[in-house]
Amino acid sequence: MSGPLRLALVGCGAISRWHRQAIEEVAEIEIAACIDVDGEKAHETARECNAVGYDSLSAAVSAGGFEAALVMVPHHLHEAVALEVLDAGLHLLLEKPMAPTPEACERILHAAAKAPGVFMVGENAQYWPEVRIVQDAVQRRLIGDVVTAAVHLFLPPLPDYYGGAKPWRFDAGQAGGGLSIDTGSHYIRPLRMWLGEITEVVAAMERPHAAMEGESLARALFRFETGVVASFSLLLTTGAIAPQEMFRVTGTEGELTVGLDVKLYDRDHRGGRVLDPEVPQGYMRSYAGQLRDFAHAAQHGEPLEAGPEVALGELRTALAMARSATSGRWEPVW
User: DSSP state, 28?
Assistant: First the structure.
């Protein structure tokens, strides 16, 4: 295929703005259509993107003019919209989670296996520069054997995502749960990249943010196939938040931390040294990496860095956390 991949944005809410910002840096993609059930929002986004606006996916598919769709709708709609995109023969980039249940995910995967296009689940943490720096350091054994790891993320309810009279992320039916199934995905994937697959979890969940039907506080321990145990903490809070290290990976010979940068603490650098400071970093850069991978797969048949089935790991982990919070026991991730 010559020229950039022509992409339709399906859903023009807050997350679409982050993707649009990233696409400005990705020459391999151009936005050709903007679709939203709110026709005014679709046409406004289309004007900003020099694209065509539609208030339904079916109308956009009938008109044509694009080869791929980036689906960014509430979680409970993922299956229906994904199946429509796949049935149309389009390449599909579907925002995480693939769907709120394993059964719905299996139906999507089954349809994708029979469809001609590329199917990718968008977990941008796979392309997060800091995460990849840690992955390289772990693989190079800069901290020896990994002993344990920790995720710590306290975040405010950003108005773009949690604002308005009835934000869908506060609705457990639309979101499929609370913080763990949504934001948690971005922090479970890095642990899996560094430590392997999670086999069982034990968790406690609470609702300190009363407007959210699902959990707004999750504390968990994850046990990995290697025997390593990691801690996992998420909180949605309106209070002031102190500086925090999002990730800490501890080994037999040192420690890695991820905050504003990636630091290595070892015998020669007990005060820590910044790893790969010359590498452009920042969470937002992960979206451009994800979009390039998708475009290269769609246009040139290159394999995706992580196939869509990999995303089942984050979903199954979040669901196991929810089961454990009810049972009070370690629950298998299946």
Answer: T
20 with 131, same domain: the answer is no
- State the pLDDT at residue 156: 93
Q: What is the 3-state secondary structure of 120-172?
A: EEECHHHHCHHHHHHHHHHHCCCCCCEEEEEEEEEECCCHHHHCCCCCHHHCH
**Identity of the amino acid at 45:** T
Comparing CA positions, the residue from 285, 283, 246, 251 lying closest to residue 265 is 251
**How many domains does the structure of the chain reveal?**
2
- The pLDDT-based confidence of 1 (bands split at 50, 70, 90) is low
Domain residues for the domain of 265 are 126-282+315-332
Tens digits of per-residue pLDDT, 283-293? 999 999 999 99
State whether 11 and 116 are in the same domain.
yes
pTM: 0.96
Tokens of 115: 């469809």
